[in-house]
Design goal:
alpha/beta, 225 residues, TIM Barrel, binds pyridoxal-5'-phosphate, globular, eight-stranded parallel sheet
Length: 225
Amino acid sequence: MSVNTEKYKEILAELEGKATLIAVSKTKPIEDIQALYDLSQRDFGENYVQELVDKAATLPKDIRWHFIGHLQSNKVKYIAPFVHLIHGVDSFNLLKEINKQAAKNDRVIDCLLQIHIAQEETKFGFGIHELDGLHELHELKNIRIVGLMGMASFTSDETLIRKEFAYLKQLFDQLRTKNHELRTKNYELTTLSSGMSSDYKIALEEGSNMVRIGSLLFGERNYNK
Ligand SMILES: *Cc1c(COP(=O)(O)O)cnc(C)c1O
């Protein structure tokens, strides 16, 4: 087992009253998740549908599972019965599919819109202009947009990372203002999910209230296992 419990406690203390910790457990074994669960951690993040489904079936039922990866429409149905929050929603088509599968399961699924903030071309997400269609959301009764999610560029340039997170926060605040005008029930922005192991401190300074941390807690990932 490779869980860093000291680091876990340190991060929790650091976040207290400011942000929710999502422990990102992708590629990590059940025992590691259970170890943090036993320390009262309840929010865990996974990136791969099959892995999430398998883990959720085995682990305690009161875990809140966050899907933080790139979600394909044809796989929404597998996580719709139990997922707590979907972070990476990057298109209206995906939102419609989540709404459909949520309806089948007689639930409302909370979602975060992923915003393209990185300079890099590789990251998924909405561009700012695409958000103009948000007023159509009231037709989707089985989803609730509760905030935004963003990933900064993978770089050691702290100034750039800070700028990207600040941009995300600015957009978040703008949309919250607009929120009042829209008055759709299924659109209530409270959550700003940004920051990972390498950049969560900067994200917190730039307004994040939900951080997604993996390797600091569970050690580096080995994808070739
Ligand atoms: C893997 C992943 C994380 C966690 O990354 P670490 O660097 O291990 O903290 C956070 N967010 C997303 C979207 C991820 O895919």
